[in-house]
Design a protein that fits this description.
Blueprint lengths: L14 H6 L5 E3 L8 H9 L4 E4 L5 H14 L4 E6 L8 H17 L18 H9 L4 E5 L5 H9 L3 E6 L2 H9 L4 E5 L5 E2 L18 H11 L4 E4 L5 H9 L4 E4 L13 H9 L5 E4 L7 E4 L2 H6 L12 H14 L22 H16 L14
Parallel strand pairs: 1-9, 2-3, 3-4, 4-5, 5-6, 6-8, 8-9
Antiparallel strand pairs: 7-11, 10-11
Helix pairs in contact: 3-5, 4-12, 9-13
Length: 380
C-alpha cells in the first residue's frame, strides 16, 4: 500500500467513499451530547463525513441544525435519529426508581422531588421526516434499527443514503433486508448507547457483547452492502485494522471528543483527559438503556446494570435532575460522561487536523511502515 508524495490516499476499499461522495472513509459518530455543527463541519472540511445528532431534538431544533450545515458546507453530511420502540409507561417502576435515588437527593439537600413530568424522546416519525424532506442531507443514520418502511421509502425517494448500527450479525442482515445502504458494525467498546434492537430486553442487555474486531468480519461476511466499523477506534492503527478485517470505513466518536469544537462541558473534558481504557463500562443507570460511559458514583452504587432502572428513557426523568443539581453544587459524580474504551487514545487537536492525522497514520500502517501516533506525518 503506497502513494506518491502529494497524491490522494489509496484506501483498500472505496465503497464508502464512492457511495457517500467523500474523500476519506472516516465518519464522525453522531453524538447529541458532544457533537456540534462546528465539529461536524470540521470533519467535512477534512474530507470525512461529519454527522449531527438530532435524536433528542424537536423538529424545529433539527431543522435549525440541518439548515446550519447546509448554509456552511456543500459537502456531504449525515443527520442521525433514534428508532427505538416506545416503552409502555410503568408508574410503579418509575416510583421505585425515584425511591432508589432519594438518598442522593437528601445527601445533596435537593429541596424538590424528581419531576413527575416524564422525559420523552420521540423516535423518527412523520414530523421529523417532513423536516428532512425540506432540506435533505446526503446521509440519514439511525440508532436502534430503522423507522417504519413508509418512512424509509420517503427518505430513499429523496436520494438520501441510509446507515444504521448493528450489534449482531442478525441485526446486520435485518438492516440490509430492510433498506439500509451501509451497516455500522458497533462493537461493545463504543461509547454511548448500544445500538441493539433485536435483543429480547434492550433495557437490561446491550445485545451482543462482541468486540468490534470479532463482530466486524462476521458482519462483513454476512452482508453485501458496505460495512463501517465503530467502537474502540481512535487512531490510524485501529483504522488499518478495521480495513484488514473487512471494513469499508470507520466511525469515530470518542476520538473526536477532546477536539476544541466538541460541545462538552469543562468537567466532561476534564474527565476525558483523566480517563484510561478501563475507566468506562456499559451501564443502564443513566437512561434505562445500556450505554458506555465513564464510571462514577452512580454507576458504582447502582450498576452497572440495574434491574430497578425503568425502561428508556424514563430513567432519565429522575437521574438528569439529580445530575444537574449536584453539578450545580460542584459534584459531577452523577453526570453521564459518555465515552468508549479508546478514550485514552483521544487527542486534543482541532477536528480538521485530527482527521488529517488519522488519514496519515492509517496510510502509514497500510503501507507496512508500522504506526506511532505521535510521529505520523501529515500529508505534504
Amino acid at each position: 500500500m503506497t502513494r506518491d508524495r502529494g497524491a490522494a490516499p489509496v484506501w483498500p476499499s472505496r465503497r464508502v467513499i464512492d457511495l457517500l461522495k467523500v474523500e476519506h472513509p472516516i465518519i464522525l459518530s453522531p453524538m447529541p451530547f458532544g457533537e456540534s455543527p462546528s465539529l461536524a463541519l470540521a470533519v467535512c472540511a477534512a474530507g470525512g463525513l461529519g454527522s449531527i445528532g438530532c435524536a433528542v431534538s424537536t423538529p424545529d431544533e433539527a431543522a435549525r441544525k440541518i439548515a446550519t450545515m447546509h448554509a456552511s458546507t456543500d459537502r456531504p453530511f449525515a443527520v442521525n435519529f433514534f428508532c427505538h420502540l416506545e416503552a409502555a409507561v410503568d408508574p410503579a417502576a418509575e416510583s421505585i426508581w425515584v425511591d432508589t435515588l432519594r438518598p442522593y437527593y437528601r445527601a445533596w439537600n435537593i429541596p424538590f422531588e424528581p419531576s413527575r413530568e416524564r422525559l420523552t424522546i420521540t423516535p423518527f416519525d412523520h414530523a421529523m421526516c417532513d423536516v428532512v424532506e425540506r432540506a435533505p442531507p446526503a446521509v440519514v443514520s439511525f440508532h436502534f434499527g430503522l423507522p417504519a418502511r413508509h418512512l424509509v421509502d420517503r427518505l430513499k425517494a429523496l436520494g438520501c443514503r441510509l446507515m444504521s448500527s448493528a450489534t449482531t450479525v442478525e441485526e446486520a442482515r435485518w438492516l440490509e433486508a430492510n433498506g439500509t445502504d451501509i451497516v455500522i458494525a458497533q462493537g461493545v467498546e463504543a461509547g454511548g448507547h448500544r445500538g441493539s434492537f433485536l435483543a429480547r430486553d434492550p433495557s437490561r442487555s446491550g445485545g451482543s457483547e462482541h468486540g468490534t474486531f470479532t463482530l466486524l468480519p462476521q458482519i462483513a461476511d454476512a452482508v453485501s452492502i458496505p460495512v463501517v466499523a465503530a467502537g474502540g477506534i481512535a487512531d490510524g492503527r485501529g483504522i488499518a485494522a478495521a480495513f484488514a478485517l473487512g471494513a469499508d470505513g470507520v466511525q469515530i466518536g470518542t476520538g473526536y471528543l477532546r477536539c476544541p469544537e466538541a460541545a462538552i462541558s469543562p468537567s466532561y473534558r476534564h474527565a476525558l483527559e483523566r480517563a484510561e481504557s478501563d475507566s468506562t463500562v456499559v451501564t443502564n443507570v443513566f437512561t434505562g438503556r445500556p450505554a458506555r460511559a465513564i464510571v462514577n458514583r452512580l454507576v458504582r452504587d447502582l450498576g452497572p446494570i440495574s434491574r430497578l432502572a425503568p425502561a428508556f428513557p424514563s430513567a432519565m426523568t429522575a437521574t438528569r435532575q439529580l445530575a444537574a443539581e449536584a453539578a450545580r453544587q460542584g459534584d459531577t459524580d452523577f453526570t453521564a460522561f459518555w465515552a468508549g474504551e479508546a478514550v485514552a487514545l483521544a487527542r486534543a487537536l482541532p477536528a480538521q487536523e485530527l482527521t488529517a492525522v488519522l488519514v496519515a497514520e492509517a496510510m502509514q500502517v497500510l503501507a507496512g511502515n508500522g504506526a506511532n501516533p505521535t510521529t505520523a506525518r501529515l500529508p505534504d
